[in-house]
């Protein structure tokens, strides 16, 4: 089964907890703090494996959680960093954030990697908090939670040239005669329901990859027919081979077919119109094809590249393949995303995460105040509420973030309930 679109959940590993410990050697009086830091949690990393051709594996496993770091230990022993969770994906995989639609990574080359969810840093042990004023702190941090997100994986085939056209115009037949590919061929619409790739070699020993893609119909850019299942796969192709049934056997006008398909490409993604297009007048061995081709040429621009062929009888294929090969060699790749913008976004992605989203205050129907936001929730999760020193530090950090003042501005008074995740406390003015 060919799977080219899945949604999965990924979560980086939590950092290990820091430890509260003190030196206990026999001849070291008043031994100081000796609690080690926790280890960093594992990242979730996607890597391209060229042997894969489908996202089938993700159909059965859709939740990926990386391991957490090891906890810190006594004698200032730091916890070990967890090994990254490596997930293999096929070439041509685009990773997007399911909630924002932002493109996280475009993975095309064998061995290319991308960190999709970072692991949390390890919590600090009490050795880190020793000061002249407090040389023996009973204070440590829990590990930082790993980053979590839902992502959408889209597989867009890596082909130099893509065959487009209405169903049953002969795309699969053309691919089968110019390459070793064996696509399904039958006399009904939408025989091809998944992309088929074939390696094409010309008589002068040049080669390129051709893709036979599911047939288009009017409204495909809105998902009609096989719609997006087709259109996502043509985004990577350098050259578009537009196959037209010149015989008119289906009762359609060849020129109207040409206009309709190009309009679908334009509506889906304006950049598809930037690609050079070769027009293939197929089924020229049929009775009315010559007359239809003459009318078709009259309506087309003079510089349009039109190649009359018969895929079934293999007439006219050499000239077509030479022309496509020439175009593939001089046409640059079309990146799916703006690389400069992508690098800029990638560079600030986790920087923004580290700084956090501050906090937000809302009211519940029962009148209690509810705190939320990445920064305050992260702080809460990293606080050890079993120790008095940690609770006091948490209160100081909240005050430093301006939460106390913000609550007063919202009308909080002595004794009011403030809720943060599963924790409730009273506001003290």
Concise structural overview:
It is built from nine helices and 18 strands. With 429 residues, it is α/β, with parallel strands linked by helices. The protein starts with a strand and ends with a strand.
Structural commentary:
It is a single chain. The protein has 429 residues and is an alpha/beta fold. Helix content is 24%, strand content 21%. It has nine helices and 18 strands. The termini are far apart.
Radius of gyration using CA atoms only: 31 Å
- Uncertain residue segments: 183-193, 218-227, 339-356
Task: Tally the helices.
Answer: 9
Task: Describe the strand arrangement of the main beta sheet, using strand numbers.
Answer: 10-11-9-12-13-14
**Amino- and carboxy-terminal Cα gap:** 63 Å
Order of helices and strands, N to C? Answer: EEEEEEEEEHEEHEHEHEHHEEHHHEE
Largest sheet: 6 strands, mixed
Number of distinct beta strands: 18
List keywords for this structure.
single chain; 429 residues; elongated; alpha/beta; six-stranded mixed sheet; five-stranded mixed sheet
Blueprint of the fold:
Blueprint: E1 5-11, E2 44-48, E3 63-65, E4 85-89, E5 93-97, E6 103-107, E7 113-117, E8 148-155, E9 161-164, H1 171-178, E10 196-201, E11 207-212, H2 227-234, E12 239-245, H3 254-268, E13 277-282, H4 289-299, E14 306-308, H5 317-330, H6 339-355, E15 360-363, E16 369-372, H7 374-381, H8 388-400, H9 403-409, E17 417-420, E18 423-426
Parallel strand pairs: 1-3, 2-4, 9-11, 9-12, 12-13, 13-14, 16-17
Antiparallel strand pairs: 1-8, 2-7, 5-6, 5-8, 10-11, 15-16, 17-18
């Amino acid at each position: 089964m060919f799977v080219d679109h899945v949604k999965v959940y990924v979560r980086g590993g939590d950092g290990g907890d820091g430890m509260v410990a003190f030196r206990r050697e026999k001849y070291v009086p008043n031994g100081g703090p000796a609690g080690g830091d926790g280890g960093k949690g594992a990242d979730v990393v996607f890597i391209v494996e060229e042997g894969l051709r489908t996202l089938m594996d993700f159909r059965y496993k859709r939740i990926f959680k990386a391991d957490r770091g090891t906890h810190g230990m006594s004698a200032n022993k730091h916890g070990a960093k967890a090994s990254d969770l490596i997930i293999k994906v096929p070439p041509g995989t685009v990773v997007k954030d399911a909630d924002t639609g932002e493109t996280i990574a475009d993975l095309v080359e064998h061995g290319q990697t991308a960190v999709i969810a970072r692991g949390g840093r390890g919590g600090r042990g009490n050795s880190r908090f020793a000061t002249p004023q407090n040389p023996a702190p009973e204070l440590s941090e829990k590990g930082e939670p790993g980053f979590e997100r839902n992502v959408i994986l889209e597989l867009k085939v890596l082909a130099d040239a893509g065959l487009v056209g209405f169903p049953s115009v002969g795309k699969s037949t053309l691919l089968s005669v110019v390459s070793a590919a064996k696509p399904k061929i039958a006399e009904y619409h939408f025989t091809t329901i998944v992309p088929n790739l074939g390696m094409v070699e010309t008589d002068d020993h040049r080669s390129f990859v051709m893709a036979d893609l599911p047939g288009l119909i009017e409204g495909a850019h809105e998902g009609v027919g096989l719609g997006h299942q087709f259109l996502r796969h043509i985004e990577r192709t350098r050259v578009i081979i537009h196959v037209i049934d010149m015989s008119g056997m289906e009762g359609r006008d060849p020129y109207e077919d040409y206009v309709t398909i190009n309009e679908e490409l334009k509506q889906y993604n304006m950049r598809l119109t930037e690609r050079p297009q070769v027009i293939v007048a197929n089924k020229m061995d049929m009775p009315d094809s010559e007359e239809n081709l003459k009318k078709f040429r009259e309506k087309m621009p003079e510089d349009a590249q039109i190649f009359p062929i018969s895929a079934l009888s293999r007439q006219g294929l050499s000239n077509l393949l030479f022309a496509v090969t020439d175009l593939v060699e001089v046409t640059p790749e079309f990146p799916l995303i703006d690389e400069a913008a992508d690098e800029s976004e990638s560079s600030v992605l986790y920087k923004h995460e580290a700084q956090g989203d501050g906090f937000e205050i809302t009211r519940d129907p029962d009148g209690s105040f509810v705190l939320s936001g990445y920064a305050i929730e992260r702080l809460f999760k990293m606080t050890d509420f079993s120790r008095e020193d940690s609770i006091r530090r948490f209160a100081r950090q909240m005050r430093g973030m301006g939460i106390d003042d913000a609550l007063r501005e919202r009308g909080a008074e002595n004794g009011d309930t403030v809720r943060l995740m599963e924790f409730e406390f009273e506001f003290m003015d």
